[in-house]
């Protein structure tokens, strides 16, 4: 059971904005890591784009399960895990991360934010803490 990626995004108009992300690609071949990283970022953005505000969903993509939670204020979180990782734990993690993120990062920064401009350092810690 593994978590591969944890992302915080903003579902705004006209597109979804990646605000912060953490990933663990250490189990992949060294030469595949950058393309796996790109796949996870692209998939996270695509899933949030296709999800309604205020919704939760789990989407199977290849051998991964992508759990998405889009809050009614547009803040969204995506966890990419293997098929064995418990769904309930993923959604508990997303609730916790999005609540903490919204308290620490000003809502005014969400529409124009990027991983370089948003200062929120807890994602890596959560990713390793929830690793089984």
TrEMBL record:
A single GO cellular-component term on record: Golgi apparatus
Primary localization: membrane
Keyword tRNA processing: no
Membrane topology note: Lipid-anchor
InterPro entries xref list: Longin-like_dom_sf, Longin_dom
Keywords attached to this entry: Lipoprotein, Membrane, Methylation, Palmitate, Prenylation, Protein transport, Transport
Gene3D superfamilies to which the protein is assigned, alphabetical: Longin domain
Keyword Transport: yes
Stretches that traverse the bilayer: none
One Gene Ontology MF term: SNAP receptor activity
Ranges for domain Longin: 8-127
Entries under Pfam families matching the protein: Longin
Compartments (UniProt record): Endomembrane system
GO aspect biological process, one term: protein transport
Superkingdom of this protein's organism: Eukaryota
SMART domains assigned to the protein according to its UniProt record, in alphabetical order: Longin
PANTHER family reported for this sequence: SYNAPTOBREVIN HOMOLOG YKT6
Family named by the database record: Belongs to the synaptobrevin family.
Protein name: YKT6B protein
Native source organism of the sequence: Anseranas semipalmata
The encoding gene: Ykt6b
């Amino acid at each position: 059971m593994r978590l591969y990626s944890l992302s915080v995004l903003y579902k705004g108009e006209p597109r979804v904005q990646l605000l912060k992300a953490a990933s663990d690609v250490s189990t992949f071949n060294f030469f595949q890591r950058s393309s796996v990283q790109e796949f996870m970022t692209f998939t996270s953005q695509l899933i949030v784009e296709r999800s309604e505000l205020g919704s939760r969903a789990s989407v199977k993509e290849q051998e991964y399960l992508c759990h998405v939670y889009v809050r009614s204020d547009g803040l969204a979180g995506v966890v990419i895990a293997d098929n064995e990782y418990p769904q309930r734990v993923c959604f508990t993690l997303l609730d916790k991360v999005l609540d903490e993120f919204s308290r620490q990062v000003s809502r005014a920064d969400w529409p124009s934010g990027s991983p370089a401009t948003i200062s929120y350092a807890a994602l890596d810690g959560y990713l390793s803490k929830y690793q089984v």
